[in-house]
């Protein structure tokens, strides 16, 4: 439907009729969804997320309900709301020449990527909030003036290579 217009910085979201707004809104939503699917069309809309926020143009792309062999729903029916870019969000980048990487550069990048890989184990990272809570309890139990500060190994200051 949208091609390159759907590749913007903002993520799309799913719009469905989970909470009826007025009497008959569920019927209206379903009829609109069925007609869009039947005609293979999308809708262009103006979307205001909340009060005092400027409206955005969005595309509502219909999605049909998908079920597997056991008749279990794998994708719900509804619309994907795709935020459309403003004119200044679009630009053409003119590449003057195509510069391929040399074999040495490719080998060096492979080496760097191998060094960046590590086995992730969730139990090797402690929950910093929980650790601080335990240190606070320990300080209370031992009548310490101030608890030790827990080290946050999940923050961006630590690099695991």
From TrEMBL:
InterPro entries with a match to the protein in the record: DNA_bd_Ku70/Ku80, Ku70, KU70_core_dom, Ku_C, SPOC-like_C_dom_sf
Stored Pfam families: Ku, Ku_C
Keyword DNA-binding (UniProt): yes
Keywords: DNA-binding
Domain named Ku70/Ku80 C-terminal arm: residues: 119-157
Keyword DNA-binding applies: yes
MF GO annotations: damaged DNA binding; DNA helicase activity; double-stranded DNA binding; telomeric DNA binding
CDD domains (alphabetical): KU70 (cd00788)
Domain of life: Eukaryota
One GO CC annotation: Ku70:Ku80 complex
Domain Ku: from-to ranges: 22-107
UniProt record, GO biological process: double-strand break repair via nonhomologous end joining; telomere maintenance
Designated name of the protein: XRCC6 protein
Taxonomic source organism: Climacteris rufus (rufous treecreeper)
